[in-house]
Amino acid sequence: MPTLPTDRQPTYDEIVASELEAVPQEERTSPKLSPTQAGLVTDPSGIGRLCEGCLMFVPDDSGDVGGCGQVGSDIKAKATCNLHRPGKPRDPESPIPNSLGLGKIESGYMERSDFRCGGCLRYDGGSKRCRKVFGYYNHPTKGDILPEWCCNIWTDGRPWGTHKEGQK
Question: Domain ranges in the chain?
Answer without folding.
Answer: 1-46+116-161, 47-107
